[in-house]
Amino acid sequence: TCLDIPERELCTFAAIASLGGCEAQLGGHTAGNLAVGNSKEVLVAALSLLVPFIGYPRTLNALAVVNRP
């Protein structure tokens, strides 16, 4: 494969965030990203790049999941 595990997990995170309404799954993949070495800052940066494509409401919902304690 061309992507390593952190990159694949980040792509999965972005795809689920794009779907919207999948916050439970997004929470699991947020934890998965953190487990493979992607930081919260990386997840927030990915979401900021997605804003024009997925819209502000879905981005806010995803950010709320990432920022859960």
Task: Name some characteristics of this structure.
4 helices; mainly alpha; 69 residues; 78% helix
Descriptive account of the structure:
With 69 residues, the chain is mostly helical. It has helices spanning 5-19, 23-35, 40-54, 56-66. Helices cover 78% and strands 0% of the residues. The protein starts with a helix and ends with a helix. The longest helix has 15 residues, at 5-19. Helix 1 (5-19) packs antiparallel against helix 2 (23-35).
Rg calc: 11 Å
What is the number of helices?
A: 4
Measured between the Cα atoms of the first and last residue, the distance is 34 Å
Fraction of residues in helix: over 70%
Give the strand tally.
Answer: 0
Described by strand count, sense and barrel closure, the largest sheet is: none
Structural class comes to: mainly alpha
Which outline best applies?
Answer: globular
**Percent of residues in beta strands:** under 5%
Order of helices and strands: HHHH
Q: Flag low-confidence runs.
A: none
pLDDT averaged residue by residue: 96
Summarize the structure.
Helix content is 78%, strand content 0%.
Topology of this protein?
Layout: H1 5-19, H2 23-35, H3 40-54, H4 56-66
Helix pairs in contact: 1-2, 1-3, 2-4, 3-4
